[in-house]
Amino acid sequence: MLEVQNLHKSYVVGKDTYEVLKGVDFTIHKGEFVAVMGPSGSGKTTLLNCISCFIPYEKGKVLLNGKKLAQLKEEKMAEIRNQELGFVFQDFMLLDGLTVFENVCIPQVIEDAPYEKMEKKAKKLLKMFGIWEIADKYPAEISGGQKQRTAVARALMNDPLLILADEPTGNLDSRSSEAVIEAFLAAQRNLDATIFMVTHDSFSASYCDRVIVMKDGKIYKELIRTGDRRTFLDELLTELKIINGGDGDEDE
Ligand SMILES: Nc1ncnc2c1ncn2[C@@H]1O[C@H](COP(=O)(O)OP(=O)(O)OP(=O)(O)O)[C@@H](O)[C@H]1O
């Protein structure tokens, strides 16, 4: 589904070149919920931005259902971003002047979809994520967790191949974070959605099927959840403690 092969990315600052991704390889299968964790500066957001081609990279391949994204013209890329990728950001990125319902409809408004189709899909998603009751409210009138569930619904409006989420629970308390993760799990269960999430939050990551741990621009380890969530959380906390030199992430 998503294949990342030998990805290299450097940033040039003045006369210096910093290699941030140093040959990253992994595959994500349809219907998987995968997290990327790792110390600050290890290249997680850069990786996400290379996958969506928001930033260019020097070497390697990103294939979405076998399609090489970097080769596409900007117009085609914009179409792919709207139809085949869904985005969820830490700061929600909702439009303040639109209601929850209208925000969720945006990807289909861009497509010029018929209103009945749009309404049916938005209603289904809003009900699935427990936010149908607030459909007519504006972002300023709802909680952070409700905002992020709105953003998840928006990301799913066009049945994308892949959801890319950058720190989706970064601005939320633990109860709201859990509700957002539950929304991702419902999307995975009911819509066979594929989710790739960058996070610092071990608690959120412990709900995933797999966690890719990055260090210094490379994949350091991949952890697969085989048992219950609590055991996986302990495994993640132990691994992060080692990687952070004993100063582990202790979110729970
Ligand atoms: N536009 C840029 N120009 C130059 N350097 C950059 C740029 N964006 C990121 N970097 C550097 O690249 C490295 C990786 O950054 P990135 O944001 O991908 O890491 P991250 O793992 O997501 O970090 P965090 O967990 O703190 O968000 C960092 O050292 C950062 O300072």
From TrEMBL:
GO terms for cellular component: membrane protein complex; plasma membrane. Keywords: ATP-binding, Lipoprotein, Nucleotide-binding, Transport. It holds the Pfam family ABC_tran. One of its GO terms (molecular function) is ATP binding. Transmembrane segments: none annotated. Residues 2-241 form the ABC transporter domain. The lineage of its organism: Bacteria, Bacillati, Bacillota, Clostridia, Lachnospirales. CDD domains: ABC_MJ0796_LolCDE_FtsE. This is ABC transporter ATP-binding protein. It comes from the Bacteria.
